[in-house]
Batch of 2 targets.
Target 1
Amino acid sequence: MALESLKDVVRKITKSASVDKKLVEEVVKDIQRALLKADVNVRQVKEISDAIKKRALSEDVLPTFNAREHIIKIVYEELMRGIGEGLEIPLKKSKIMLVGLQGSGKTTTTAKIAKYFKDRGLKTAVVTADTWRPAAYEQLKQLAEAYNIPFYGEKNGNAIKIVKNALKNLKDYDMLIVDTAGRHALEKELIDEMIEIAKVLQPDYKLLVLDAAIGQLASKQAKAFHDAIGIDGIVITKFDGTAKGGGALSAAREIGIPIAFIGSGEKVEDFERFDPAGFVSRLLGMGDIKALLEKVERVVSQEELDPEAFLKGTFTLKDIYKQIEAMSKMGPIRKIFDLLPFGFSMKVDDDAMEMTQEKMRKFKVIMDSMTEEELLNPKIIDSSRIRRIAIGSGTSPQEVKELLKYYKTMKNVMKRFKKKKLPIKGLKMGF
Ligand SMILES: Nc1nc2c(ncn2[C@@H]2O[C@H](COP(=O)(O)OP(=O)(O)OP(=O)(O)O)[C@@H](O)[C@H]2O)c(=O)[nH]1
Ligand SMILES: [Mg+2]
């Protein structure tokens, strides 16, 4: 993959004897070459490389960075800016409709997205509205069954009727992923069918599935689909098998549609939410830590998760709420602690700190059912309140208690931080 050579750029900066204009110019050239090879469009390549050059030669090095880190940070930030935001589909009741040309990977992606949301605790089902290709029904059925994902389809039905029936049959599901038929080209017949399906389905998200191998052609294709039915997000597939993946990335940016997911293999597991920070870090070979550092910087500055405030003020359930929100963006809290400038590291057993997505979602739902007073002063939550909260949030009293236990444990951790009685040995989070 052409983008792979971006790793060499970082290596070059790290190994350079001195950081000067010559190095910056070389680095900018290397980046240009890598992006162009990856089929990123010329105008975007110019924008990105110009910005890197300008900043690298004019900006002061921040006190916490050395000159090399400073350049790497600028490269990282400008690539991030070039890539734009990802589309994060929230974990709530939604309908997703997939569209795309023949063979782009819609059916595979339908199963991948379904597994993604199922793994995160949503009651998810898939629907095939592809009556064009005879084997489409079996293909999706088999994929879905392999992961215990409920499937709806009709072997000889009409796509619009199938969607109507699916909506009736799958009313109780949180997340419906609807696969549609592809055509060789975006012809009128396909457009009409997509419009009809969308009318009946009323999808929250229309996702366009783009094969990364088409490189810069992605731009024309995405624009045509967007003009025809309005696209909310892009899924790039087959990122594994091509050197031209930059084409689809830059197409999304050019048209202004965020990327939601990336598929990088035939297996249902070969799939991830498109997270620009993680993505760029990996391109640059900086691993998760750098990405996390950046994120911590951002999050702390937004006071989403402010450990200093934790230490100063009273630690309430609101902090747990913020913490969970930050965690769903950044990964486990343990990793964040590892990076914070407390001057000591905390030895915590991994499992204890790890919170599953499912648990995070539950905890948030439970807190959403609490009053302001309860959030700020959890001590008042007695057993009758616990019962009320459980009913209100559709959870069990046991689960509410679990959250309160987690809160107490975290509060203890914060107290110990305050007293610097660390490291905490064998800290258990109680679940
Ligand atoms: N390497 C790789 N192959 C993929 C990926 N996604 C899908 N494929 C393969 O691409 C081929 C087409 O995938 P489908 O999911 O059937 O594509 P589709 O868009 O549903 O095709 P039609 O229904 O004919 O329009 C299959 O062989 C998939 O296994 C991916 O991310 N990487
Ligand atoms: Mg298909």
Note: DSSP finds 20 helices and eight strands in the chain.
Target 2
Amino acid sequence: MRQAVMTGPGKIEMRQVPTPETKSNEVLLRIKHIGICGSDIHVNHGLHPFTSYPVVQGHEFSGIIEQVGSEINELYPGMNVTGRPQIVCGECRPCKRGDYNICDVLRVEGFQAPGVAQDLFATSPQKIVALPDSLSLEEGALVEPVSVAVHASQKAGDVKEKRIAIFGAGPIGNLIGQVCQSLGAEKVLIRDVSDFRLNIARSCGLENTSNATNESMSDAQLRVFGNDGYSVAFEAVGIESTLADGIHTIEKGGTLIIVGVFGEKPKIDMALVGDRELNLIGSLMYKHPDFEEAVRLIELGKIVLAPLITKHFPLEQYEDAYSFIEEQGDKSLKVIIDL
Ligand SMILES: [Zn+2]
Ligand SMILES: [Zn+2]
């Protein structure tokens, strides 16, 4: 079978490797689509702190079950599925209390363990989520980023009837906005410096947008929320200025969820955090129920995915997909590899 191996930053080789054996407690998947995300791009640049080479990428995917091990009952060949890429220990303190997404020795397929960029991939049935017939396999590959958004939204507690600001209109910020809206948020404001991304946000039903290059956050929040302000913020960029905007403008006692990956350490005005009784909460990946909730929301038609998909490339053109992402800059959201 074919396997795409990243041998070093920016270099992907196609190899022929033997089909993996399916153990009695595993399922074998025929991979159909793989989404490329910001973390993958960091690996392609050689800038991901926790990934070494060679690495087989691919952690957001859909596929069809090809074969099931003899111990497995609920899954059958021919089912369309997606799955979690997390490898966890089950024994550390976070795992024991059910927070395996922050396992002390968490490994993620596509980063610290081989990912799915190959025709067939053997995995554990516990990580598999079945896709209903109403979802396409293309949508199935986007369940993973939607799950990131579901998990982040739950970190804020119940978002129903809340006023919410989102910093960053990339795929994750966009999906957080859509998830919050589908869960009954009163109003969502989404901000970015890219008009292109804000346009996409509007075509996904996020009508209140603000471009940070020509509108301050205080003006934007006044325009959108009036004097009521907002009580929940999601930072989905990972830079100091957006975090500072949130800390300065959210209402007192508000909650900021940190989803963006901060490459550089931001300076935060902790005096304001204390004085305004703000809650700063981190969010990492997802748990199994977040995947199920993501599938449910997509199935209900509450999440618009099509505008997020910029382009498809076949597996053989994995490197070209990255060149395309570089060339497009802010005009590329989700690029998908087809197998
Ligand atoms: Zn990702
Ligand atoms: Zn653990």
Note: The chain is about 30% helix and 25% strand.
